Amino acid sequence: MDLVPAVPRPGLSGPFTPAIAAAAGVGRASLERLHRDGRIVRLLCGVYVDAQVPLTSRVRARAVALVVGRRQVVVDRTAAWVHGAELLTVPADAPVPLDLHGRRRYVGGHVPFARTDLGELEGITCTTPVRTALDVGRHLAPERALVALDGLLRAGTLRHPELIAASALCHGLPGAGQLRELAARADGRAAEAAESVLRLRWYDARLPTPTPSVRVAGTRLALGLGVQRFGVVLSGQATPAELRGCSRAGWRVLVVARSRVLAEDPAAVIGHLEREFHQHLLAEAG
Asked: Which of 24, 92, 161, 176 could be bridged to 9 by S-S, CB 3.0 to 4.6 A?
């Protein structure tokens, strides 16, 4: 990686720590400046990578390997991230949390690992995508859990039939009811965390079941109802011209700000969806 124009920095082609950067001639002040400028990304606390490096599972695992020991087991949110999922973090650019077996405590205790629950990648021991999905589905708040489950499906490291079948075997465990509900609702067509949370709010509203990633007149909608011709996009996902094209096709498309979906009281977002949908139905009825 070339952190300073025309000056190659050996050893910084993948994830690195401040100590590795210093050994390559990049001091703390330069590191902070590069981070502010968006030229490097902070993945974990104390672990960075060139912003142009694709964040594959191997790159993510190499980042985790810099801060965990070989005998530690990577679980939950960190494992989901290693397997390609996006996480719901606050603030959005916060480092990925480091979840290790034994460090976190859950009501009802921990379910022991079977040999098939663990795998190795780039020197770290990590729960498999299926075991990771079961853990986050039971332990995390619904919004965070659904974001992780959608992300695992979107990344292709987990298949929906696998998730459904495995969740059915968790009967009687703490959080099993939430897991089964979220497993049924998980969908890899969600493009980002805010879409997953928006879909969860929609499910909690008194609305028909939506279809994710609907296309109307060439425009992708986050969620849509084909029969009622009603859909939702997040701010910035569709241009004014694209929204006009949807309107000409007979669709009402609601634009919702990401910040509102992620930070506002869920009841307010649910109420907004319901009001807009019912107003659309009234308008359609004449």
From this structure: 24
Q: Kindly tell me if the per-residue pLDDT of 241 is higher than 50.
A: yes
Query: What are the sequence ranges of the domains in the chain?
Result: 1-51, 54-185, 193-285
User: Do 125 and 73 meet the contact criterion of CB atoms below 8 Å apart?
Assistant: yes
Residue 227: the pLDDT is: 95
Q: Does domain 193-285 have CATH number 3.40.960.10?
A: yes
Residues 19/46, Cβ–Cβ less than 8 Å:
no
Contacts of 218 (CB under 8 A, 6+ apart): 242, 245
CA dist 242 and 250 (Å) reads 13
Quote the Cα angle for 147-80-184, to 5°: 45
Contact 68, 78 (CB under 8 A): no
Structure tokens belonging to residue 191: 């493009």
Which pair of tokens denotes residue 211? 């279809």
Q: Please list, in sequence order, all residues whose beta carbon lies within 8 angstroms of the beta carbon of residue 208, skipping any fewer than 6 positions away.
A: 225, 227, 228
pLDDT above 90 (res 106): no
Query: Considering only CA atoms, which of 134, 143, 147, 131 is closest in space to residue 179?
Result: 134
Pairing outcome for strands 230-234 and 252-256: parallel
175-212, pLDDT tens digit by residue? 999 999 999 999 999 999 999 999 999 999 999 999 99
The helix/strand/coil state of 98 is coil
Q: What is the mean pLDDT of residues 216-236?
A: 97
Mean pLDDT, the chain, whole residue set? 91
- Whether the full predicted model's pTM is greater than 0.70, yes or no, is yes
Residue 27 has pLDDT above 50, yes or no: yes
